[in-house]
Amino acid sequence: MKAVLDHVGIAVASLEAAVAFYRDALGLEIEVTEEVESQHVRAHFVGVGGPALELLEATSDTSPIARFVDRRGPGLHHITLRVDDLAATLERLRSRGIRLIDEVPRPGAENALVAFVHPASAHGVLVELQQKEHGG
Ligand code: ZN
Questions:
Q1: pTM of the full structure
Q2: How far is the CA of 6 from the centre of ligand 1 (A)?
């Protein structure tokens, strides 16, 4: 099995302030903005050459991102590893007793299927597993 780092998710409290830093101060470009309605999140992908940065903005108070920011403040939220076969990866993790947040793949940003691994089983890091539509 192999996995590729796809992006790093950053929860922001204020998109305006985040844009002032990443775009205006660092000179980076927000390449894609996407609404993930199921998660009440707007994701802004910033190109940095390799894996992207994903600025995550809550669109409602019930968003997991709003809860995260309330509890811990803005900051690093998750890393996303892209795999070829998400269902098989979940099965493999399950068989080893790894705690999963999503037992089955669900639609995520970038037209991909995603599933989250619980940080308790991933050394304190929220790990998102992702399978792009065409396996790439
Ligand atoms: Zn993400």
A1: 0.91
A2: 8
Between the CA of residue 73 and those of 93, 95, 120, 128, what are the distances in Å?
Answer: 30, 34, 20, 20
Q: How far is CA 125 from the centre of its chain?
A: 11
Average model confidence (pLDDT) across the chain: 94
Residue 129 Cα to ligand 1 middle (Å): 9
Distance 7 CA to ligand 1 centre (A): 6
Q: What's the pLDDT score for residue 114? A: 94
Distances in Å between the alpha carbon of 68 and those of 16, 61, 72, 126? 18, 11, 6, 12
d(CA 110, CA 117): 19
Q: Please tell me the CATH code under which domain 3-131 is placed.
A: 3.10.180.10
Cα of 104 vs centre of ligand 1, distance in Å, is 17
